[in-house]
Design brief:
18 helices, 17 strands, 41% helix, single chain, Arc Repressor Mutant, subunit A, alpha/beta, binds pyridoxal-5'-phosphate, five-stranded mixed beta sheet
Amino acid sequence: MMSSGTNSGAGSEAGSRTSSGAGPHRPSTESLSPAWELLLPAAAAPARGRGRALRSALREAVRSGRLAGGTRLPSSRELAADLGVSRGLVTEAYEQLTAESYLRSGRGAGTWVSEGVRAAERPVRDRAPRAAGAAGARVDFRPGTPDLSLFPRGAWSAAQRAVWGRLPHSALGYPDPRGLPELREALAGLLARRRGVVADPERLVVCSGVAQATTLLGFVLRDAGVTSVGVEDPGSPEHASLFAATGLGTVPLPLDDDGLALAPLVRSGVRAVVTTPAHQFPTGIGYSAQRRGELLGWARDTDAVIMEDDYDGDFRYDREPVGALQGLDPERVVYTGSVSKSLAPGLRLGWLIAPAALTERIVARKRTMDLGNPVLDQAVLADFVVRGGYDRQLRRCQRAYRERRDAMVAALDEHFPGTTVSGIAAGLHIIARLPARYGPEDALLERAAGAGIALRPLRDCGTAGSEDGSVPLVLGYAHLAPGDIARGVAALAEAWRSGGSGRR
Ligand SMILES: Cc1ncc(COP(=O)(O)O)c(C=O)c1O
């Protein structure tokens, strides 16, 4: 804790050594109390900015509470001497901060830190409790992230340079809220070719990931009088929270082996539903051809909308990717996707393709939300797609992820015999059901957390728990090297055997 009162003792001695900011700055660090040491970096700033640096360091010290209200500051002469700066700089800083109410001067001589200056609230994310085992996890098996080290930095920078070389000044104005025409053209071609989407660039809206696509659709549906949306159960918890942010409720709807079960959907009375037909999140099932047809029939009969979240539809390992549902009826399906799994979620770049009846309303929402995505990022992605970089990236990831998937299945087989795996034909995660002897679930999760292994139980994604005592886990593998997967699964087995006393 900082001391209050003046920095007594060595002040005058030091003052005699350094009285001018013009000379070499040799602060008397031996005499400084910890409270004033925090001003040393400012004192060492280049002469031109030293005064400003000192004022901000003092302000920050007061705001953060390191200089508590009521603390008496050293005299300007003493502090100048201790810091090795001119007395004028300190006087100026004291006067300025007194004028700003960070400091107050007493009736006689002396300057104090004002009471009542509040430290800024720390961001919520710093204070929020973390998921068990997530903070500093030794191994993180939670799904959702691709291997960020596979990001094509070289090709991306080349595309950036190419774009800066050819982008006219006029392109740096406000963009078309639906996206840069060249990107919409490029994406329409890509999605038609790779995903069988009916892609009219006029109906394609570039947005900040599937997350923003969901929000845009949510607002438009709400404006149209919709009050709740059907979501898959189990499904992505994100869908419910994003729709909630637009004022819509969600109705969890069960799945069967073919996809979203039809009868509960019909009974629910919803007029909009979110689906992940290519690789259901999290179970990994692909919707059957029959269920796709039934769903579209339901949408036509009830004048409903289906949102298709094609979040990882490009990654399929053992057979050709199944085409998008949207290709079967573009007037009933809002198709959404992003580069979050293929390139990096931090780019925040995605797209939606809307039915004609909804396009303009969605574009109007996009306009009022953010006036469109950043032009440069869009131009770079367009360049990257057109020059074949996107296809190359998908091929590269596909090879790496297949190998990792195999490593995960093999490691489970070795260390958790009897485990059944599903959803392994595509995507970046699998579902592993560990036999009941590895349960109960809470105990396993606790042991894993104790050993620094972060896991996501399937129950986090839905309403129903396991009925037979097995422990169903959603295991992400794409972001981990095969060796790390093998070691991580072995460490999990060890944690289970040792009752959670595994070394971190
Ligand atoms: C089901 C599902 N949809 C979409 C996304 C991606 O969202 P975005 O494109 O906004 O990054 C994720 C991310 O993990 C997801 O799990």
